[in-house]
């Protein structure tokens, strides 16, 4: 029973780190997989070292005024 509890905690931590990787180049899947196969701490370090995705925000008001 104790092993199941530890496994659930590891999967939960991997999911949290995966959420951090969702907005990065590495993505959710790779972050999650690295956490499962290596460890959540190593996966977190790798995820935080990957670059963030560049988002381009568009000003909707300016676009509508030009049309």
3D architecture notes:
The chain has 67 residues and is mainly alpha-helical. It has one domain (2-66). Helices cover 72% and strands 0% of the residues. The chain contains 4 helices and no strands. It has helices spanning 2-21, 27-37, 40-49, 60-66. Helix 1 (2-21) runs antiparallel to helix 2 (27-37), helix 1 runs parallel beside helix 3 and helix 2 (27-37) runs antiparallel to helix 3 (40-49). It is elongated and about 65 Å long. The model has no long low-confidence stretch (mean pLDDT 88).
State the helicity in percent bands. Answer: over 70%
Beta-strand content bin: under 5%
* Overall average residue pLDDT: 88
- Which shape, going by the Cα principal axes? elongated
> How many distinct folded domains?
1
How many strands, which pairing sense, and closed or not: the largest β-sheet?
A: none
Summed up, the helix count is 4
Q: Enumerate the spans where pLDDT stays under 50 for 5 or more consecutive residues.
A: none
Amino-to-carboxy terminus distance: 64 Å
Oligomer: single chain
Q: How would you spell out the order of helices and strands?
A: HHHH
Structure class? mainly alpha
| Strand tally | 0
Radius of gyration: 18 Å
Highlighted features:
67 residues, mainly alpha, 4 helices, 72% helix, 0% strand, elongated
């Amino acid at each position: 029973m104790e092993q199941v509890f530890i496994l659930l905690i590891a999967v939960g931590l991997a999911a949290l780190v995966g959420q951090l990787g969702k907005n990065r180049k590495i993505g959710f899947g790779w972050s999650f997989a690295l956490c499962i196969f290596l460890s959540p701490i190593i996966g977190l370090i790798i995820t935080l070292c990957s670059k963030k995705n560049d988002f381009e925000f568009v000003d909707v008001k300016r676009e509508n005024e030009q049309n």
